[in-house]
Specification:
The protein is α/β, with parallel strands linked by helices. The chain has one domain. It contains five helices and four strands; from the N terminus they run βαβαβααβα. α1 links the parallel β1 and β2. α2 runs parallel beside α4.
C-alpha cells in the first residue's frame, strides 16, 4: 500500500494577505481540504500522512523529521507552499530537505489541499 507524505502550511500560520493566496481561501477551507484529501487517499487504499509546517526557518527541519520517521512512496508539496510569494525561500528549503532526506522519492504538486490524491497518482500509477 503506497504511503504519501503531504507537506503543507499549518493553516494557523498562513498569511492570507499574500498576493499568492487564492481569493476566498481561509483557515477552515484549508483544514477541510486537508482532511478531505487524507480521506480520499485512505478510501483509495493508500496511506496519507500530513506534514504541517510553518512558513519560516523551522519548515525544513520538520520535513526532515517526518522523512526520518517513515519511508514514503511519493511526497506531495501543497500549492500554498509553492505559491506564496513571501515564502519562496521556505519552499526552496523544503525541496532541498526532501532531496537530501528522501533521494529518489517522487515529488508531486497538488493544485489545492483536496487534490493530493490526483497529484500522487500522476507519479505512482505511471511509473
Amino acid at each position: 500500500m503506497p504511503r504519501i507524505l503531504i507537506i503543507g502550511y499549518d493553516p494557523d500560520s498562513v498569511d492570507f494577505s499574500d498576493p499568492g493566496s487564492p481569493p476566498g481561501l481561509d483557515i477552515d477551507k484549508i483544514w477541510a481540504g486537508a482532511k478531505a484529501s487524507l480521506k480520499r487517499i485512505e478510501d483509495y487504499g493508500w496511506t496519507g500522512v500530513q506534514c504541517m509546517v510553518r512558513p519560516d526557518d523551522t519548515a525544513a527541519g520538520v520535513v526532515e523529521r517526518a522523512l526520518s520517521d517513515a519511508k514514503y512512496d511519493c511526497i506531495v508539496i501543497g500549492g500554498g507552499v509553492r505559491l506564496a510569494y513571501n515564502s519562496v525561500p521556505v519552499f526552496e528549503n523544503i525541496v532541498d530537505a526532501v532531496r537530501r532526506s528522501a533521494p529518489g522519492t517522487p515529488l508531486a504538486f497538488n493544485e489545492g489541499p483536496e487534490k493530493s490524491l490526483e497529484a500522487a497518482k500522476r507519479w505512482l500509477e505511471r511509473h
